[in-house]
Amino acid sequence: MTVFYNANIFNGKDTEVMQNQWFEVADGKFKQIGVGNVPASIDEKKVNLQGKFVMPGLINAHTHMMMNPVTNKLEYLTEAEVTVTALKNLRDLIGSGVTYIRDCGCAFNVDIKLKKLRDQLDLVIPEIVASGRPMSMTGGHGDFREDEDGNINWSYLVDSPDEMRKSVRTAFKEGADNIKVMATGGVMSAGDNVNDTALTMAEMKVAVEEAHDKSKRVAAHAQGNKGIGNALKAGVDSIEHGIYVDEKQAEFMKENNVYLVPTLNAAASISKYGRDSLPAHMTRKNDLVKHDFFEHVAMAIQKGVKVVVGTDAGTPFNSFKTGTWEEMELLVNKAGATPTQALFGATKYAAELLNITEGYGSIESGKFADFLVLDQDPTQYITAVAQTDKQVFKKGVQIK
Hints:
single chain, alpha/beta, Urease, subunit C, domain 1, TIM Barrel, 2 domains, 8-stranded mixed sheet, 11 helices, hydrolase activity, acting on carbon-nitrogen (but not peptide) bonds, protease
């Protein structure tokens, strides 16, 4: 057991930093939390945090651990290559302060397999809400060929409600925690456009029905306005990207507790680093939507939609090391969020979306002791989370 004292705590649920706090960690969890001097009756190892700032470990709610953001190779990946890439990316994430992720699409269900192996092999990687292979229509955003011979698809290809039901049930049998559906085209896929609709509302309704019957969630890749509307009518739990979300849709999302995971850093990274190296269809589509993207996310924040931090990490030049911080800075500097709103997006709101609030997302007695120690107050300076030499604790054990 260890007592940390002389700390200023952003606990992930209150807007104010709690000053001059102490907290006890035992068996990987937060125990007592108090203010002022540590009671004399507590005779344990004591660590003076010297007035530094403590916050919950970051949650990144939209990653693709299988992808290499430098090579940008999407097809003909073998399972071995996907696994090696994923392990490197996961280590980069936890080193950056991300202690929990939701992966939103992984070939060969490697995210599911690594989740199962994490504790068995004592891997120093974030905990994982795994989606496994996503749901895509034939020829849609997600129809990518994998393995050396191209005979394995990144997605489950579904072209009817019955095929969706079979695929979702298969995904859950394989161990998926979350279902990812492709409601529209996207920037990275060559054969469609952002405004193209993909899976039908009827198909997505089946996914939602199957998932909600098992207390699971459905995330919808939805960029164009009509596809966002279809996904919302189908009852999904989160809109991923949401480039052309409109005011009525934002109001619906607020009223029905549907989360928005914008992944602004995906667009920003392509624009900043990819102009001379990426396929023309990616840069062309990205240029067309980038301004509207920031504008519509800003509107959603103003409307009170719960905006969750997710980066689409693994997409071109979208780093696992720095992307989570960059996403939070974009939310503040480009979309008008306050630092506290951005912090909630990586703690409280993210934990709600991932359905892990019982143990994560805030610093409270009884929850797992995932926390960061920072030099500056993140509620005043969102750049505080980007501190490269910050301390990172996972279940009370310092890993950096």
